[in-house]
Design brief:
It is a single chain. The protein contains nine helices and five strands; from the N terminus they run ααββαβααββαααα. It is mostly helical. β4 and β5 form a beta hairpin.
């Protein structure tokens, strides 16, 4: 199994046992789009200036699964972050979000990390049932960094914050571990030594705040 990207790991950890998102899981979809934007920012493909996003480089071949987000930004650039989020997460149809989910899910299936199938009653959609061992490998990686002293990697910081915002992080930790986890997350947010870490956390939280404004 190859190393997975931020959005691949996030999707793997948030899909339910049936391999899909429920219609009530708005936060999960929002964070999937946020993670896609963040991954492209970290890759140097996008830039964020004055709350607007634009492309600065072609989409790498290895990131083709993020083309729905990249193409939308390119069509409208420079475009407000909340406009991109609204297009995927709060449109009249969920087809835009599921196009993104499907592209990322296909890469998980190709990597042997999920099993692709068909679901839905009124409308058939692709589902991606996570492989238990692949999901556990990601969780153990998160646990190893979060619950032990040492420097955190950029991807783990981003993944942790996204899973926290989606409501999925705590279900992978015991009651005892949650206490240490809470303190670790606080220390990440207050970090003064690693400014990039602090900026990353603030970016994700601000992005999520923008989404709440759009939804209300």
């Amino acid at each position: 199994m190859n190393d997975l990207s931020l959005t691949q790991e996030y999707l793997l950890c948030t899909l339910n046992e049936k391999g899909k998102y429920s219609s009530m899981d708005v936060e999960k979809g929002v964070c999937l789009v946020a993670g896609s934007i963040l991954e492209l920012l970290m890759e140097g493909v996008l830039k964020l200036e004055k709350k607007k996003i634009s492309t600065v480089a072609p989409l790498p071949a290895g990131k083709k699964y993020l083309s729905p987000v990249y193409d939308r930004i390119r069509q409208k650039e420079p475009v407000k972050v909340e406009a991109v989020m609204e297009y995927f997460s709060f449109s009249f149809s969920d087809k835009n979000l599921y196009a993104l989910l499907g592209d990322i899910g296909d890469t998980l299936a190709e990597a042997g990390c999920a099993e692709k199938g068909e679901g839905g009653m009124l409308r058939k959609t692709s589902v991606y049932v996570p492989d238990a061992k692949a999901k556990d490998a990601v969780i153990q990686k998160i646990r190893a960094e979060l619950l032990e002293d040492g420097e955190l990697s950029e991807d783990i910081i981003a993944l942790t914050v996204l899973l926290q915002k989606s409501g999925d992080l705590c279900r992978y930790f015991s009651a005892y571990e949650k206490k240490d986890l809470k303190q670790r997350l606080k220390s990440i947010k207050k970090s003064s030594e690693n400014q990039f870490v602090k900026q990353m956390v603030e970016y994700i939280e601000n992005l999520f705040a923008l989404v709440i404004i759009v939804a209300t």
